[in-house]
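worker-03 picked up job from queue 'complexes'. Input manifest follows; two sequence lines, order preserved.
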Amino acid sequence: MPASESRLKVKRDGSIIEVQFRDRNILDEANIQQIGEEIKGIIEAEAKPKLLINFTDVDHLSSAALGTLITINNRVRAIAGQLRLSNIDPQIYQVFVITKLNKIFEIHENADKARASFK
Amino acid sequence: MANPSPSKIPSPDSPVSGTFNPANKRADIDTVEKAVLDAVAAFGYPDASRFAMRIALEESMVNAFLHGHRGLPEDTTIEVKFQVTKDDVTVQITDQGPGFNPTSVPNPTDDENLELPSGRGLMLIQAYMSEVRHELDGRRIVMVYKRPSEGG
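worker-03 finished. Artifact:
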C-alpha cells in the first residue's frame, strides 16, 4: 500500500475538523499507525484544534486502534485542543465501556451533537 | 497455511475444525478470522457472537506476534486450532516465544493505567470469551466461547 493513500476523509466546518475513516475495520497495525500519523499531522497544523472523529461505517476496532485514540487525545489536550468522538456502533461502544475509555473520551451519539459540544 | 474445510454443510453432529500456521501478515490473519467466522455464521450464531469472536481472534493473534514473538524473526508463525460446534467455539493459539506470566499484566482500567495506549487486548479477550486459559507457561491461550441462550 502506498503511503500517500490517505486512510481518512477529512472535512472542515468552520473551526471544526471532522475526520472519518475509509476502512470499515480498523485492525491492521500498519493502517493504525498511518491513521495515527495522519491525525497527528492534522492536529499539529492547528493552534487549538477542535477535532471530531466520526466513526460512521466502522464495524471493528482493535485495542491497538484504542491505543492510538488515547495518544491522539493526549496530544490534543497537551495543546489545549478539544476532541470529540461520534457515531460509534453500539457493539464498538461496548468495547469503550469494557475498557472504561468512555470515561476518557467525550462521545456523542451523532456528529451534529458532537459539533454543538465544542466550546 | 493448512486449509481447513469449513465449507462442509454443518450439522449438530459434525463440528467444523481447522488448523492454521499464520505469520504476522494481514492476509494470513484475515484468512484465519474468515475461516472461524464463516463456521460461526454457518452454525447460525448471532451477529454479536461474530463480533466477540473477531475481537478475541484479532487481539490474541496480535498479542502472540507482538508480545509472544518479540525479538524473534518476523516470519515466525503461530499455530491456530479451532473447532466450532452448535454449542461453542474453541480457539487455541500457540506461539513460539518464551511465554509470559498472565498475572503480571497490569489492569488497564485502573485509574493510573487508563490513559496508557496499550494493555487492553487480553482484557477484551477475557470480557468477550466464556473461558480463557493460559498453558505452556503463557505460550498458549485457549479461548472458549459458549453460544448465548436464545433471546439472551
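worker-03 released lock.
Residues 8-116 of chain A form a domain with the Transcription Regulator spoIIAA fold (CATH 3.30.750.24).
The beta strands of chain A are 8-13, 16-21, 25-26, 50-54, 60-61, 82-86, 107-108.
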